[in-house]
Amino acid sequence: MVLLFFIHLGQVSLANSLAFVVGLAHIFSRRGQYPYSRGYLFLRVMLVFWLIPEALIGTKFLRYSLSLIPLIYMTAAVGIAVTWDVVTDRLSTIFRRRRLGSVVGALVVCTIFVIAPVALTVDCLLRSHPSLYVNVLGRRRIGYFFPHDEFYDLGARESIQFMAKHASYGGTIASEIPGVAQYYLERFNRSDINSEIISQPSFSLSNERPDFVLLQRGRVYLENLDNSALIERTFPIAHASLYEGATTARVYATGTNERQVTSED
Questions:
Q1: In this structure, are strands 172-175 and 212-216 parallel, antiparallel, or unpaired?
Q2: Quick check: is 146 in a domain?
Q3: Which domain holds residue 92?
């Protein structure tokens, strides 16, 4: 349970994660002086009754942890305040001046817990997709823990464009996103292509197979595990969409007249 929760923290900036750990230790080891004791009690109760169910039940979808995020940041705020007090005390001892130690301590804490996370956020927004961020606690394993929320339909447009370009007239493609596929097929002037759903009970690869099948790491369900495994074992990859070094979507050539076309985005 604790391991799963700290995997969730792998999606939060390292500075805020460390502040949360400090705050967590503080609120559970001290009652706090009134009226702060009421806030400590609130955080203890809410973290226990939200953290345990979240760690046990909501581990597949990262978005389930959104309701827990405010409590994480409130606890991190406590950790930042505790860190500020410790740093100020140490610096005041070194400088022998309380006011100077307090100012320098504030600058240090602000740099670590405010300026650095803001700079990281701006960098993610400008350079990449924010949902792909993983800190060192997550070992920077993009799309490994929560592909459904990190990837979702990332790379789907490029994959559908590839299938629209290479599928035969009146052919068929299969995916888990028929609505998205239909939208892009119309945009790419391939309304003649039919679309199937892999997880449908009627879907089969034994008779008339679709020209291409789109498999997405953000669209893995119990209903499509068997078909996905069969497709990965049997058919060649014709196209792959890569982001930040991680594969988000793969197109397999499954038609009887397979075209050996390989491409990466």
A1: parallel
A2: no
A3: 2-141
